[in-house]
User: Which sequence fits this backbone?
C-alpha cells in the first residue's frame, strides 16, 4: 500500500512554520523515577504545550499549510478530545473558521474548551456512521478542509517536531518512547528519530486494554479494536494504514501496560515530578514499570503527551 | 532590636555552596493566568525543587555551613512539614546524622518522607512546650546543631537563592511576590531583590485566616496567631523578630487571601499550568485574584514554594 508520509525535511519545515504559535516545551528529569525504572528518563513535557497537549503541533502545521484560498473556507474535524481543541486553537491563530464534530455524550467541559477557542461545535450521535455523516455534511455546506487527527501527513509532521526538540535538548539519547493511539505522534517521532540519529531506538506504549497497535505491528495490517475499556482515553483509537506503515518501518517494539500500572504511573508522576499529566501520558512509564519495554541503564526520552484531566474525577478515588 | 540577617554577599555565597545539591528550578509562564490577573506572571517553580519545596535551599546552606566538628555531631530540627524533609535531605547529602522532632499527630506520609531520607524521628506531644523539650533533650544527648526552619540567618540566605535565579532568568521584573509563614522565604527574597534591583517591589502574601505577618508588619512587633485554620498548612506560623526586621525593612506590602481564593488559585494552577502545587504556594495568586495586591500591567515574579500534597485529600473534594 502506498501512503504519503512526511520526510525529515517536511518535519523541519513544520517546525519553522509552527514556531510562532506553539511552545518549545521543557524537558524535565526526576532522579527518583530514574531509580524506580533503572534508566535515565528525559520527559518532554507536552502537557505544558498550548491547549495542554502535543496535538497543538500537528493541527497548527496542518492549518498553516493551507493555501489562502483553502484557509478562507475554514477547517473541520471530528474529535471529542485534544485534537478538537488543537484545531480550534490553530484556526484562531490563523484567523479562520473551525468546525468540530463531537458526539452528543462528550463532556460539557470538553465542549466548552472547544467553544472558548472560537470553534463551532456540531453534535452528532455517538457512532462512527453519524460522525462521518456530520463531517461530510459540514464539509459540503462550508467547503472546509478536513484535518484528520492522525491520518494526515501534515499532522504527523507537526507531531514530529516534539522529538526534534527533545533530541536537540538531550545529548546522547539511546531510546525514545511515545504513547500510541492513532499513531500520529509515534509516527512523527519515529521518522525524526530514525532520520536524525541512526541507532536511536524508537518504542511505542499503549494500554493492554487497547492493544490494537501492538497487534497491528505484529500482523502488518490494521487490526480492529473491539472494545477499548482503558482509562487512557486519548489512546482508544486504531491506527490508520498511514501510521502503521511509518511505525512498522521505524519502531522497534510496542509495549503494553495494565490499567493498574497506568494509574500507578500517573500518580507517581504527579507526586514525584509535581506535574499534571493525563492517563494517556502515563502509559510509557507504566510500560517501563511492568518491564514490557527494556531500556535498563539507557538514556531514554519519554514524550509526555498531555495534561488535560478532570480534577473532579481522578482515577485513584473510588 | 539587633538581629543577624544575611547580606547579599552571604546569599551569593549560599548559592555557590548549595549549587551541587539543589536544582536550578525553571520559570514557567501561563498566558491564560496572565489574562485573569492582568499582569505578566513568572512562576519560579520550587515545587520542582529537591524534596518538593524551596526549603531544600535553606537547610542545605545551613548544613554545608557547619564546621567539620559541628557537622560530625549532626543536625536537629522540629518540623511536621517540608523543613524536616529538607534538613534530612541536606544531612544525607553531607553524610551526617539528622534528628527531626515531630508531633505524634503528624501524618504517616510525612513521617515516612523524613525517615526515607535517613533522618531519625523523635515524636512528641503536639504542644510547643513538648516540642521544645524534645529538641533540648535530643540536643543535649547528641550535641547536634539546631537548624530552625526560618529564625536562622543561614537558612534565610539559602531561601534567598531562589530570588537570585528568578531575577537572573527574567529581565525587567517589576515586582516579586512570595508567600509568608515564618518569613524565611520572604526575608531572603526581599534582601536579594532590594539589594540587586533598586525599585523592584517585594510583596508578601498570606492567608487571611493566618494574617499574623500582615498585622506584625503594621504594628512592628511579632503579633501572635491564636488559631490558624487555613488550608495553607505551610503558613501556619508566626514571624520571628529576625524575619520581621528583614520584612519591615524591605517589603512594600503583605496581601491576604481567603480560603476560597486559595483553593480556587490552587485548582486554576493545576488546570491551566499543569503543575502540582501545595495550598501555601497558591496564596500569592489568590491574593492577586482578590486584588489584595496591586500589580496590574506589571512583570511579576511569583515564588511557587512547593508541591507536596496528599492526592487522596484534595481541597476541591467535599
Assistant:
Amino acid at each position: 500500500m502506498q501512503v504519503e508520509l512526511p520526510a525529515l525535511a517536511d518535519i523541519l519545515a513544520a517546525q519553522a512554520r509552527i514556531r510562532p504559535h506553539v511552545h518549545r516545551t521543557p524537558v524535565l528529569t526526576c532522579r527518583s523515577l530514574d531509580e524506580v525504572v533503572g534508566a535515565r528518563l528525559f520527559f518532554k513535557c507536552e502537557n505544558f504545550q498550548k491547549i495542554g497537549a502535543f496535538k497543538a503541533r500537528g493541527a497548527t502545521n496542518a492549518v498553516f499549510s493551507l493555501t489562502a484560498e483553502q484557509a478562507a473556507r475554514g477547517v473541520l474535524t471530528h474529535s471529542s478530545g485534544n485534537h478538537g481543541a488543537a484545531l480550534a486553537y490553530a484556526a484562531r491563530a490563523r484567523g479562520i473558521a473551525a468546525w468540530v464534530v463531537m458526539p452528543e455524550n462528550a463532556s460539557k467541559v470538553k465542549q466548552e474548551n472547544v467553544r472558548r477557542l472560537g470553534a463551532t461545535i456540531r453534535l452528532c450521535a455517538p457512532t462512527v456512521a453519524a460522525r462521518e455523516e456530520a463531517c461530510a455534511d459540514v464539509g459540503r455546506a462550508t467547503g472546509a478542509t478536513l484535518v484528520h487527527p492522525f491520518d494526515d501527513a501534515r499532522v504527523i509532521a507537526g507531531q514530529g517536531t516534539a522529538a526534534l526538540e527533545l533530541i536537540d535538548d538531550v545529548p546522547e539519547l539511546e531510546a525514545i518512547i511515545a504513547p500510541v493511539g492513532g499513531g500520529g505522534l509515534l509516527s512523527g517521532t519515529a521518522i525524526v528519530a530514525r532520520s536524525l540519529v541512526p541507532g536511536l531506538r524508537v518504542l511505542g506504549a499503549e494500554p493492554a486494554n487497547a492493544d490494537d497497535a501492538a497487534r497491528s505491528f505484529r500482523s502488518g495490517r490494521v487490526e480492529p479494536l473491539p472494545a477499548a475499556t482503558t482509562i487512557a482515553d486519548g489512546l482508544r483509537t486504531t491506527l490508520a494504514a498511514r501510521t502503521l506503515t511509518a511505525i512498522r518501518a521505524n519502531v522497534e517494539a510496542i509495549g503494553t501496560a495494565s490499567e493498574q500500572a497506568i494509574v500507578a504511573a500517573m500518580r507517581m508522576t504527579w507526586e514525584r515530578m509535581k506535574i499534571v499529566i493525563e492517563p494517556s501520558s502515563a502509559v510509557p512509564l507504566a510500560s517501563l514499570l511492568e518491564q514490557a519495554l527494556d531500556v535498563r541503564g539507557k538514556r531514554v526520552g519519554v514524550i509526555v503527551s498531555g495534561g488535560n484531566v478532570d480534577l473532579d474525577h481522578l482515577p485513584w478515588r473510588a
Observations:
- The mean pLDDT of chain A is 96.
- The radius of gyration of chain A is 18 Å.
- The interface with chain B takes residues 26, 28, 45, 47-48, 52, 267, 270-271, 273-277, 307, 311-312, 314, 316-317 of chain A (CB under 8 Å).
